Amino acid sequence: MVNETDPAIGATETLVVEAKEAVRHRAPSRVQRVGDHVKREWQLYLMLLPTVIWLLVFLYKPMYGLQVAFKDYSIFRGVAGSPWIGFEHFETLFGNDQFLRALKNTVIMSFYTLLFGFPMPIILALMFNEVLNATFRKTAQTIVYLPHFISSVIIAGIVITAFSPSAGIVNTVMGWFGIDPIYFLTKPEWFRPIFVGTGIWQESGFQSIVYLAAIAGVSPTLYESAVIDGASRWQMMWKITIPSIMSTIIIMLIIRIGNILEVSFEMIILLYQPATYETADVVNTFIYRQGIQAGQYDFAAAAGLFNAVVAFVLVMAANTLSKRYSRTSLW
Amino acid sequence: MANMNLYSRGDKVFTIANMVLIGLFTVSTLYPFIYIASLSFSSGFEARAGNVILTPVQVTLEAYQYVLSNPQFWISYKNTFIYTIAGTLMSLVIIIPGAYALSRPQLVGRRFWNLMVAFTMWFNAGLIPFFLNMRDLGLLDSYFGIIIGFAVNGFNIILLRNFFESVPQSFEEAARMDGANEFQVLWKVYVPLSKPALATIALFCIVSRWNGFFWAMVLLQDDSKIPLQVFLRQTIATLSDDQEFGATLFDASYSFETVSAAIIVCSIIPVLIVYPFMQKYFEKGILLGGVKE
Predict the structure, then answer these.
(1) B104 touches chain A (CB under 8 A)
(2) How many domains does chain A have?
(3) Residue A249 belongs to what domain range?
(4) Number of structural domains, chain B?
(5) Which of B75, B85, B98, B158 has its CA 20 to 30 A from that of B47?
(6) Which residues contact A13 (CB under 8 A, 6 or more apart)?
(7) CA separation, residue A35 to residues A21, A24, A174 (Å)
(8) What CATH number is given to the structural domain containing B150?
(9) How much is the average pLDDT of B168-182?
(10) What residues make up the domain containing B16?
(11) How close is the nearest chain B Cα to the Cα of A5, in Å?
């Protein structure tokens, strides 16, 4: 035992002696400088430690766990112990009609949200900007920001109640015009309009804050000289305000396109039912049902990995684009 | 900006039309809440008949009695308070020192640590690996799992780090002269100067905790641990199922609609109480996050 380790100790000793010599003659080595630095600044690293540990345990460890997508996972063998099966799950996935449908629905719903939801906060911000009465403006803003802070369970509860076939306000109003009641939430053709509409209703106000800030940054002298030139408010909006906030609009658009695979699936889980899966099921709700509810963890993880990789590529591309556009990266 | 009487007639029409449109949008935002509140105070019979449009019809508190007499409602309410308060404190305790360390120029490997945070904003392992990890850690069905498992997010760290970086060095010099260590500098110089940023982050945490639903539903099985949102969901789902199958669990004094509405009102009230205080901060806070690197 002693003999075995002896040479190592000897070698270490030599190294230490050499290192000490080196200190005497030359600038301290990199390792030593870092060592001294840590000794001096250990408090900083102690402060960083909880964050790093948290990230490793709750976000990076699951990334390691993504390997189940390539494994025949069993609970008893665990993530590391389960046998590898290569791309089998991915092959099943791309032959799975439900997954392909979910992928299609995700893109369609994101696209509609973008198409109808993206202009809304811009329009709202422009409109708020034209309000001269400060009290009116403040009150209206307070109200339209509010739904952002209400939980999706409550919003879904409101939607379910309002669209209820027996007593919901929507069917009541339709009844005034002699239209027969519709059980909206069981109709596949109604799901997307209701989902997209709810999203716009909930988020437009809050999203307008970014544009309002951009508008607040426009130099007042531009408007002053336009007023002298006799420009109307309508003209000033089109010729000054909109061009001035164009870069904000483009950056927000790029971010939104980068996040096209992100639909608020929590809201979908709350609103959909088997009758509407056809149009409502998205990738994350598919993963939730297959994985967490049905226990096919490996297969569902493969769907998740595919989703995450595509999303990552899109976000990176969006970041590169906006960097090129604005010379300031998003991160 | 300019004198009012400089505006032409066209401008007046424009201004008025604009106010009307904003008014309409505001009313359409507010109306669903008024509708729900009115439903909750109406009798089940009138609600069923579709007679509640704007104000309560046949005012009654039966729906509230039904909700408030359910012990599970109070258990969930208490749990939501626990998750919100403990969760927010946990977030701040981890994030504040972490963001401070990341903001210090002398931190070795600063680029690496920052990238480690930022990467989690671009790439996410997804639902299944996160769930399996929580299970492997023994954090299913546990208060602690909910509190710790969602304590940190990259966006909040970067937001706070940016704020700390914007604090001029001169502020801490006096404290350094007095021989303050890093913890003292953070606590006595940076934290007081960063109140708006900290308030913003605390509010983001509080709101996301109060509203948190999906993971609470997935990770918690035991009814004694579920938060309000999960209880709300369970109630609405059960009641609307009953309705679907035509079961008449309810007499005329309350119905599916009025009971759902009553729970919604009860869980929205705390948000409405904090909301005015929040508004001051979130308008600025949302922009802090936009100023990056």
Answers:
(1) yes
(2) 2
(3) 88-326
(4) 2
(5) B75
(6) none
(7) 17, 17, 75
(8) 1.10.3720.10
(9) 87
(10) 4-69+227-261
(11) 34
